[in-house]
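Lecture notes, unit on binding sites. The following record was shown on slide 14. It pairs a sequence with glycyl-adenosine-5'-phosphate.
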Amino acid sequence: MAEKANVMDKIVALAKRRGFIYPGSEIYGGLANTYDYGPVGTELLRNIKNLWWKYFVQGRSDIVGLDSGIISHHKIWEASGHVAGFADAMIDCRHCKARMRADHLLENYIEAMDKNALNELISAYGVKNRDFSKALKTGKVEGLSLESLENIRANLSNLSHNPLVCPNCGEDDWTKIKKFNLLFPVQLGIVEGEQGMGYLRGETAQGIFINFRNVVDSTRVRLPFGIGQLGKMFRNEITAGNSVFRTIEFEAGEIEYFFDPEATEWKPLFEEWKNAIWDFVTKQLGIQQSNLRWREHEDEERSFYSKRTEDMEYKFPFGFKELWGLAYRTDYDLTQHKEASKKDLTITDPQTQKKILPHVIEPAVGINRLLLMVLADAYVEEENRTVLKISPKIAPYKVAVFPLLANKPELVKKAQDVFKLLSPEFMTAFDDRGNIGKRYLSQDEIGTPWCVTVDFDTLNDESVTIRDRDTTQQERVKITDLVGYFTQKLQS
Ligand code: GAP
């Protein structure tokens, strides 16, 4: 575990050092669970989003895009159930005032327990306390009531050997476990009092449901079809750590895929979506298959309105964690909004000619979490270098151009010409600082797939040396062939 944690620390350090991710509000001491993206992080984020949009929206005739507002009417979130139920169980340490998610506290403790002690406890509690023994067996406490969580916490704190204490200060002085709503309220200026209360959206999905009628009336869509949206969402998360894995502001890519359950069987459709997501992550983002898996939610974990939910999980340095959720949400959301708004949200299915409220399958992913996965998956330490083997499709820079020597104006001029040739076609870096070895190292650490060096021979033969990031092999290519060379590489 120490070794794995170490890898995460190294990735976080590289991300800061090379301009991928900076801690939020850093010069004022930082703000928990917020981050900013530096020059190369911004490019990477944008490339991932563009690829998602191209693959899931522009590349499909059955999906259209949407860009709904971030600040939204409080009635949306009352109807969707978020105001009443979008909450985490939270606990405070009275001694050091650390606040944490109670489910994470208990699950992390159980995960780290000695396996013999764990088995002894399971046999001792077995039938006497079902929730407790199930939590011990599965390592999961999701879906349990506050009372059950409190009971599990008390049992673990009462253990004579290695009792549950605050991971921050080591004391056993807990508040009661309470619900903590994740929505961020905003007070709008135009209207006084409660009526002027809105929320920053807690998911982009609701923007899709409330615009369902608009999209149906203003486009030529017909069932089955999807509406996709990329954008920021906000959750008052209290768990810190693991970089951008869990933040209070993040971007998501969500699709609501509407269908008539009488005309389209949901199980094959669900499988199609699993395949599309797998294909995107492995072939488009270039992630290693061995680091991915699907995990189905158990009944307690799944939202009450969902018939099936599966998470694609990625093996982060801190363990397998949710990357992408796929949920069959039935007609829950449209029903809620239809009832709360009193608007007709039905649509005629062209196959059955019946007016129905469609069901949805929802693939939802955090773009920032995809970025963290890309960094973790690409991070490789070799004997003399650290390299990010990011898929060229999404690498921040595709090419870097160097003059062999910075103090030779004729080489610098020629390298600038090569930069001017390449930069309209590909995101291209130019570097004439330090020696060539250092320049390679810095491009390796930001994942630039190819470096082009202009040397003295270039002045005679109009050729340059291309060095491949992954193999470090070099080859000579004519300047006039460069655009074709990289275009072909990026397509393969
Ligand atoms: N509309 C469904 C929905 O919002 P979710 O599982 O809560 O589902 C979707 O979120 C995805 O967003 C997750 O699979 C994860 O990738 C990402 N995500 C969720 N909470 C996050 C957070 N606090 N920070 C970063 N990414 C988050």
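Take-home: The chain has a mean pLDDT of 94.
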